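User: My instructor asked us to take a sequence, write out its structure as tokens, and then describe one feature of it. I'm not sure where to start. Here is the sequence I was given:
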Amino acid sequence: MRICTLLGLILSLVLVSTTSSSAEDKLSVLLVDGQNNHKWEITSPILIDILESTGRFQVDRATSPPKGEDMSGFRPNFADYDVVVSNYNGTLWPEQTRKDFVAYVKNGGGFVSVHAANNSFPEWPEYNQIIGLGGWGGRTEASGPYIRFRDGEVVRDNTPGRGGSHGSRHEFVVTTFDEDHPIMKGLPAKWMHCEDELYDRLRGPARNLNVLATAYSDPETRGSGEVEPMLMTLEYGEGRVFHTVLGHDTVAMSSVGFQVTLQRGTEWAATGKVTLSDVPKNFPGESKCETRSFE
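Assistant: Let's start with the prediction itself. The structure tokens for your sequence are:
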């Protein structure tokens, strides 16, 4: 009886220890949403599913008041999280919230900008430094250069013109530019992304910008005729930033390529490393996009 009791106690302690260790291994994520010119009410749950399905992340949400309502009380506690993911494009945050966010990233917090989050806050200099490149909102050459690719080199192009555009939604090939970066390691050199808005003509300070992957913005789909950055990383102070321009809607987010790079990019922004290194068997090649649907 005593032996059974002792064994039971040991087993319970092992289980508690294992559960605690598993919980501690999860990275804490804050997803910011509440306003967007895209359907954040639909896409935010998908982003949560993509991240939490790995078992690596625990996601909370900070949802702002609707556009036009009082934003003064919107002050997420960024410092409580390993990484902040933005699905937000809307009203400028209150001054103290902006200060909190800048301090969070500068002091080592991770940040992930998803698709239209790079449309946000053209009037906020620090945010534009954090994301590197942005679009719309009146952005022009005064906002910073275009990023162009000439003979395999990244070139800052100060040609006057608008900041931000896209042609018709379509499938397109994403090409790895930095194969050695942990986010891209082991992925195919080229893979087909599902139907999405291919952002082009983005402009911004582009300081400490590292381009991970690109796509050709074809004039036949009303694109720029240029190779455009699709996935990027940046450093801001001690903080790490992963910027993906992919992910317009449920179709784009169903792309296995989008999901894997978002998972890896979020982990990298939080820790500087990527342990989510397994490449799924259904990761796409160059000819066909592959999807994972959402329940």
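For the description part of your assignment, you could build on this observation: The first strand starts at residue 27 and ends at 33. Try explaining in your own words what that tells you about the chain.
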